[in-house]
Design the sequence.
């Protein structure tokens, strides 16, 4: 099992969610986050004063998936979250040692 964590632009969420559902993803967790990378923020004008926005709003998606689905999920994320511009986001994949469904006590694949 793997945990896939993806940082995407907020306006891409609906497209990504629909595409993930189409490839069989049954659940995702979405968190509003802020950060910067190569994009390094930007300046804005507010009430006549210019200020720097260092941390840009993003969404963090977390998907627990069987190892055999990871490649399909990653391809789907890359296709639907991309604008081919700086700041499109990143995908992180790491091992998931154990999953337990609280309600039933099911573990691992059964809990997904």
Sequence:
């Amino acid at each position: 099992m793997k945990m896939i964590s993806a940082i995407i632009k907020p306006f891409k969420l609906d497209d990504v969610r629909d595409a993930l559902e189409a490839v069989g993803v049954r659940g995702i967790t979405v968190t509003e986050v802020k950060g910067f990378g190569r994009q390094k923020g930007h300046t804005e004008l507010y009430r006549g004063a210019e200020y720097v926005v260092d941390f840009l709003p993003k969404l963090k998606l977390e998907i627990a998936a069987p190892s055999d689905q990871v490649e399909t999920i990653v391809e789907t994320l890359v296709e639907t979250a991309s604008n081919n511009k700086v700041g499109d986001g990143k995908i992180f994949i790491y091992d998931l040692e154990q999953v337990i469904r609280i309600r039933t006590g099911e573990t691992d694949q059964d809990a997904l």
Remarks:
- The chain has one domain: 2-111.
- Strands lie at 2-8, 29-35, 42-46, 49-53, 56-65, 89-95.
- The helical segments are 13-22, 70-81.
